[in-house]
Every structure is written in structure tokens, then in C-alpha cells.
Design brief:
Structural class: alpha/beta
Distance between the termini: 100 Å
Number of strands: 17
Shape: elongated
Oligomer: single chain
């Protein structure tokens, strides 16, 4: 917010100070000297009022102030403008006749009365603190005490000593009344967003102006002097200073009435002043009246002391109660925080998030919800332990809070799922925020000495008036899984098509549960050949699904579906069982000519199943199959770390099964797995093989890998070979095994058996 630059000595202010100093000097000299042209001393009065009007007008036009504050200074300026007219009218009354007089006419009284009414109305229009009924009763009593005391003092020291209704007497009465009301209003009832320093200056100035009334009796024989020559400049200078301070400092903080027990000295001081005045009047007279004044004063003093003692005791008791209540409030606040916040990350939890969503839906406010899920978070837990996983979640939480705006909400729904509530954003603004968020969240991080690069998938949806919190979350969840299926590390907006796809997936998942029982699944086998001649060295078992209504469904559709809905364990058990059965049958029927190795894919979920190695051992024993003929293909992400999956792989290797690392080079920490995991075969991914015949980075990687593989005494299989040029280039690079459409597409078991029979026939013919 912009405030005016401070110019403490600009021309209007310098002029006001000059007029104020002139008035003081003029009045002081006038006490001992009779001016030949006394009207000169009156001229600063309208000029000071004009300068006060100007400063109030400037403050009322300040754009930095709130409406109520600007309105206050505008009204105060109107009152100052009336005082310009009043002071000029007063000069005419005093000097317009044959002799100088302090008496004022009806016109002047009406103008001063209008100015007083404007000031009182302006003060009474100020906002007050929120008060209870008891507060208002105490406020009214304090106001009455102050007003009564002030009235008695004014009567005794000024009006009671004046024989006529002079200008001085009226002015003192008006200024004293304003002083009292200003004091009570500002210090007891609140003043909106007016600058507190400005109000103190006003109260002090009006109080000093009122105190000049004490000089009134001294000026009865000096018609060329009046207390207005002091009161007017003091009050107007205080108005100028207050208006300038308000303009320079801007609005005060919103008024808050602090609850509590405030001991006010105002009533006691007022009573003390009146009792002092009583003693002053009665003691010189002597007699019974003086003794009665002494007794009443002493009794009142004892009553006040007793009340103060009781108040102190009550205050101590209440302080103890307050301390206990404060502890209870702190405990309640702690409980509330625990109920609504996630204990690990310190951000909002699911119930608090749902409540906030419901409130915004009820209020009809537009908002966007983003659901975030860490990609491959299980890998971090399995490899580095749950402490590292917790530290990563805390890091992600902190980065999310740093990436969003102050009014946004970050919550943890559980596990590795977070959600954002983004009010007031359109699609463009949301995507701009998410772009920066992904860049910030997915920065590398060191967790317990390990370098990690977190990746997140984000589903985004906008709230609708008819929504519930559950529906908003469901749509964001659908969009988030769409982002995961698209590769992760990105955001995806919800689309109604996704619901259709989700319904389709649900129906397809239900059909998949029946596919095994209905004999709709079957295996095909893709040959793995030796280079360069292409002789059959082994096969890889691949599952296919022939749906009764939709025909052949690609494995790229139903395998991820089985992974997401948990059917992959049952499906994998059937695939492994069928592959072992077929391998054993080939071994019985073809002997040494049967494939030396049959590869079968095993998912991470299968490896993590308790008893999986024992299940494999029982299956091999039931079919009397040599374990060395079976190759278990696993992915890098399935065995990252030292968890259950890696231990299962080691047990399988100890049983005599061979272990192949599938899609080598496409995951994380591939080289470290060559040391930690008992791998005997590496399958180099098709994405590297595609560029092997060109001067590409893929070719360099393929050439480099073979050196590492041979150095570790492993075997490599190049996947996805589609041309003779690729096969020749791979052979020259040192690869001895390959598979791909260049050699053969996946074949049914009967065609593999036919190939084996043909090979047997050729061998028999040669012999």
C-alpha cells in the first residue's frame, strides 16, 4: 500500500507553526502591555482554522485510508471550516462596536454551536469495540462520573466567576465539553481504524485548549485579551498535527477490544478531584461543615481502600483461573491440531480436507482439486527402508507447501497420496501453478545418503455445485491413474471419457476374473535364437486373452488392469503353472532337443507374496522338471532394495532356477542390481536395439553394455530385433542371443513342438 511521502516542513505546516508561535508571543506580551491595534492578535484564529480545514481535507482524500477513516476527517474538516466563519464573526462582535468587548452575538454562538455539533457527531460516529452488557454499564458510569466532575470544575473555575456571558466563558465551556467527550470516547469506547497517535494528539490538544479557561478570571480587566487567543491556536494546531500523522501512517489495525479485567483509575481520580474541591471550599469556613467534609472524605477514602484490596484479592484468584483456562485452551488447541493434521508431515489430513471441501461446496466458491501420488514409492520403502520413505514424504510435503499460494490447502490423504485445494483458479492458472509445482517437487533430494529423484502423477478436477467431497476426490483419483498410465511425472485433467474407460475397465476386470475358469487364456512362446545362424535356444512364455465378445485383447491392456485391481497374483500363478507344465511336456517328448530354457515373467506382487519360492518348488517337483530349464524374468523395479522381493529372488536362484533381468536399462539403478541380485541373463530393451545400426547414443549404450555383461560372466538377450542388419550388428558387437519378429513371432505350443520335431528329423537325417 502506498502512503504519502513525509514532508514535515511543507509550506502549510510552516505557516501553521508560525501563526501558533505568533499567538503565544502576542498573548504573553498582552498580559503586561496594552496593544494599540489588538485586532492583529485575532487574525491568526481564522487562518489557523483554514489551515486545519485544508489538512483535514487532504487526509480525507488519501486513497490509503479506509472509507470510515476518510469520512471522519472529512467531517472534522467541515467543523474546522465552520470555525473559520465563527472566528471571523467573533472578531466582528468584539471589534465592531464603539468599545472592545468579550461578549459575542447570537450569530457567533450559532456558528460555534454548529461546529460543536459537527465535532460531537463525528466523534460519536466512530466505531466502538464489541462490548458486553456489563462493559456498557461500566462505560456509562465512567462517562457520567467524568462528565459530572468536569461540569463542576467548569462551573467553579470559569462560569461561576464570570458576571456576564462572555466569549471566553462560552468558548471555555465548549472546548471543555469537547475535551471530556473526546477523552471518554477515544480512551474508553474505541475509535475504529483511526491512528491512535492522531487521536492522542487531538485529545491532548483539546485538553490543553480547555485548560486555558483557568486564565479567564485573570483577563476580566483586559478586554483586548481572551483565552481564545490561546485555546484556538492550540486546538487547531493539534488538529493539523493529527490529520498529518494519520495521512502519513495510514490506517491503524482493525480495532480489537482485549477481553479481561481492566482496573480504571478514572472514577477514583474524578472523586478525588471533587473531594479536594470540597475541602478547598469548606475548610476556610470552619465549623461543623468543615468537620463533616473531613469525615465524608475520610470515610470515602477508607471505602475506596477496602474496595481496592478486595479487587486485588479477586484479581489474584481470577489470574489463577485464567492460567488454568489458558492451559486448557492450549491442550484443546493441541488436540484440535492432532485431529485435523497428519502426524508425519504436519499438514491437513483427510477429515479436515473433506470438511473444507464441503464448506466450499456449500458456499458455492469455485475451486480446483489436485490429487498427487508418488510414482514407485514402494520401491523406496523396499530398498532404503521406511525411515527413508517417511523422510521423502516429509520432503514432498514441505515442497508442496512452498509451491502453492498462501490461501491454498495441502493435505495428506494417507500413504503417498497428497491433495491440493486451489480456490479461485481457472484452467490456465491451475496449469501454471502445477508446472512450477512439478518442477519444484521432482527436484533430486538426498535421503539418508541416497540420491533420489521423486516423480509424481497428478489428477486434476474442478469442483461443481452438485458435488460432494467424495465425488470430487473420485474424479481426481480417476485422472491421477490416467496420468500414471501415461507414464507418470505429469498431470491430467479429469474428462468424462475417463469415467467411461473406468466403467469399461471395471467390466473387463470382472471378465478377467472368469477368464481362467472359462479357458479364455492361453500361452504363446516367442523363440529366442542363437546368433548368427538363428538356431532355437529357448522361448519366452507370453499370455494371451481371447475374449468371447471383444476378441483378442492385447496384454498391454489386461496386464496393467490386473496389476491395478490385484488379479495379477492369480493370473501370474496360472501363467507360471502353465509354463512349467508345458516345459515338462516338451522335455518328456523331445528330450535333449527340447528348449534349453523357457522364460516366464513374474510380477513384483508375486515375488512379494509369502511362500512364493516354496510354491515354485512344489510346482517343479509335481511336474518333475529340472529347475535349470526355467528362467524367471523380473523387472528392475520389482527387486530394487533388500526387501521381500529380492530375498525371494535369491531363494529361487538357490533352488537352481535362472534369473533374467527384463527390459534392462529402462529403470533405475540398473548397474547396482547386477551386484545385489543373482542375475544370469540380461535382456536388453528394444528401445536400445532400435538405434543399433545408426551412429546414435543407443548404439554406444549397446556396445558398452556387452562389455559389462561379459565381464560379469552373464549372458545377454537383445529384444525386439526386426531386421537382418540389426541382427548382424548385434552379433558383431558380441551378442550371442536375440529375439524379435525378424526371427519369429510368438507361436502356439503346437508350432513350437513342430519346430522341435523338424529339428529332430534333420538331425536324424544327418546321422
Amino acid at each position: 500500500m502506498h502512503f504519502p511521502s513525509r514532508r514535515p516542513f511543507d509550506p502549510p505546516f510552516v505557516a501553521a507553526l508560525g501563526l501558533f508561535v505568533f499567538s503565544l508571543i502576542w498573548f504573553a506580551i498582552g498580559l503586561v502591555h496594552v496593544w494599540s491595534v489588538p485586532i492583529i492578535g485575532w487574525l491568526p484564529l481564522p487562518l489557523m482554522a483554514a489551515l486545519s480545514t485544508y489538512e483535514c481535507w487532504r487526509t480525507s482524500r488519501s486513497p490509503a485510508l479506509d472509507v470510515a477513516t476518510r469520512r471522519f476527517w472529512g467531517r472534522f474538516g467541515v467543523a474546522s471550516a465552520l470555525l473559520i466563519a465563527g472566528s471571523i464573526s467573533n472578531i466582528v462582535d468584539s471589534f465592531g462596536g464603539a468599545v472592545i468587548t468579550q461578549n459575542i452575538g447570537v450569530r457567533t454562538q450559532l456558528i460555534f454551536g454548529a461546529a460543536l455539533a459537527m465535532i460531537l457527531w463525528t466523534l460519536l460516529r466512530l466505531p466502538t469495540w464489541q462490548r458486553s452488557r456489563s462493559d456498557w454499564i461500566r462505560f456509562a458510569l465512567d462517562t457520567g462520573i467524568v462528565a459530572l466532575t468536569g461540569g463542576v470544575l467548569i462551573w467553579h473555575f470559569t462560569l461561576g466567576k464570570l458576571a456576564t456571558t462572555s466569549h471566553s466563558g462560552l468558548a471555555v465551556s465548549l472546548i471543555a465539553t469537547i475535551s471530556l467527550l473526546t477523552f471518554v470516547k477515544v480512551l474508553a469506547a474505541g475509535a475504529g481504524r483511526l491512528d491512535r497517535g492522531s487521536l492522542r494528539i487531538l485529545a491532548l490538544g483539546v485538553g490543553l485548549a480547555a485548560s486555558t479557561g483557568l486564565l479567564t478570571p485573570m483577563l476580566a480587566d483586559k478586554p483586548h485579551l481572551t483565552t481564545s487567543l490561546l485555546a484556538f491556536p492550540v486546538s487547531q494546531l493539534s488538529g493539523i498535527l493529527a490529520a498529518r500523522r494519520q495521512r502519513f501512517n495510514g490506517p491503524a489495525a482493525a480495532p480489537v477490544h482485549a477481553a479481561g479485567r481492566r482496573f480504571s483509575l478514572v472514577p477514583y481520580l474524578a472523586a478525588a478531584v471533587l473531594y479536594g474541591l470540597l475541602l478547598k471550599v469548606e475548610l476556610p469556613r470552619g465549623g461543623p461543615e468543615a468537620m463533616l467534609a473531613y469525615a465524608v472524605t475520610g470515610l470515602t477514602l477508607l471505602v475506596v481502600l477496602r474496595q481496592i484490596t478486595t479487587l486485588r484479592d479477586n484479581s489474584r484468584l481470577l489470574d489463577t483461573v485464567d492460567a488454568n483456562l489458558e492451559q486448557l485452551r492450549a491442550y484443546q488447541k493441541q488436540l484440535d491440531h492432532q485431529v485435523t493434521h497428519d502426524p508425519l508431515t504436519g499438514i491437513s489430513n483427510r477429515p479436515a480436507w473433506s470438511g473444507e471441501i464441503s464448506n466450499r461446496l456449500a458456499g458455492g466458491e469455485p475451486f480446483v482439486v489436485a490429487l498427487l501420488d508418488l510414482d514407485d514409492f514402494k520401491v523406496v520403502n523396499d530398498r532404503y527402508g521406511h525411515h527413508a520413505g517417511d523422510a521423502l514424504l516429509q520432503t514432498i510435503s514441505r515442497r508442496l507447501r512452498e509451491a502453492v499460494r498462501s490461501g491454498d490447502t495441502v493435505a495428506r490423504l494417507g500413504g503417498d497420496e497428497f491433495t491440493l485445494l486451489l480456490p479461485g483458479l481457472d484452467e490456465r492458472g491451475t496449469e501454471e501453478l502445477l508446472r512450477g509445482l512439478l518442477a519444484g517437487v521432482q527436484r533430486p533430494v538426498v535421503i539418508e545418503g541416497h540420491d533420489l529423484t521423486p516423480r509424481i502423477s497428478v489428477g486434476v478436477t474442478a469442483g461443481r455445485p452438485e458435488d460432494t467431497a467424495g465425488e470430487v476426490l473420485r474424479r481426481a483419483d480417476v485422472a491421477m491413474y490416467a496420468a500414471k498410465r501415461a507414464g507418470g511425472g505429469r498431470w491430467t485433467w479429469f474428462d468424462t471419457v475417463m469415467d467411461q474407460l473406468a466403467d469399461s475397465d471395471a467390466r473387463l476386470g470382472a471378465d478377467l476374473r472368469q477368464a481362467i475358469a472359462r479357458d479364455e487364456l492361453f500361452l504363446v512362446y516367442q523363440p529366442i535364437v542363437e546368433l548368427p545362424h538363428g538356431r532355437l535356444a529357448g522361448v519366452e512364455a507370453l499370455v494371451r486373452w481371447r475374449h468371447p465378445d471383444h476378441g483378442m485383447i492385447p496384454p498391454g491392456i489386461f496386464i496393467p488392469l490386473a496389476e491395478s485391481n490385484g488379479q495379477i497374483v492369480e493370473l501370474g500363478r496360472w501363467i507360471v503353472g502353465e509354463a512349467v507344465r508345458q516345459t515338462a511336456q516338451w522335455a518328456r517328448e523331445h528330450g535333449d532337443d527340447a528348449p534349453r530354457k523357457v522364460s516366464v515373467n513374474v510380477s513384483a506382487r508375486q515375488l512379494s507374496e509369502p511362500g512364493f519360492p516354496a510354491e515354485m518348488a512344489a510346482l517343479l517337483a509335481r511336474h518333475d522338471l529340472d529347475p535349470s530349464r526355467l528362467v524367471v524374468e523380473i523387472t528392475e523395479t520389482a527387486v530394487l532394495g533388500t526387501g521381500v522381493a529380492l530375498e525371494a529372488v535369491r531363494r529361487l536362484h538357490a533352488m537352481g532356477l535362472r534369473i533374467a533381468l527384463d527390459d534392462f536399462g529402462t529403470g533405475q539403478s540398473s548397474l547396482s542390481l547386477l551386484v545385489d541380485c543373482p542375475v544370469t541373463w540380461l535382456k536388453v530393451d528394444k528401445s536400445f536395439v532400435d538405434g543399433v545400426t545408426t551412429a546414435s547414443p543407443q548404439a554406444v549404450i549397446v556396445d558398452g553394455l556387452i562389455g559389462i555383461i561379459q565381464g560379469l560372466r552373464m549372458e545377454a538377450v537383445a529384444e525386439g530385433v526386426e531386421t537382418a542388419e540389426q541382427a548382424d550388428r548385434l552379433h558383431r558387437a558380441g551378442y550371442r542371443y536375440a529375439q524379435g519378429y525378424h526371427f519369429a513371432r510368438p507361436l502356439p505350443a503346437t508350432e513350437i513342438a513342430l519346430l522341435l520335431s523338424m529339428r529332430e528329423t534333420r538331425q536324424n537325417q544327418l546321422t
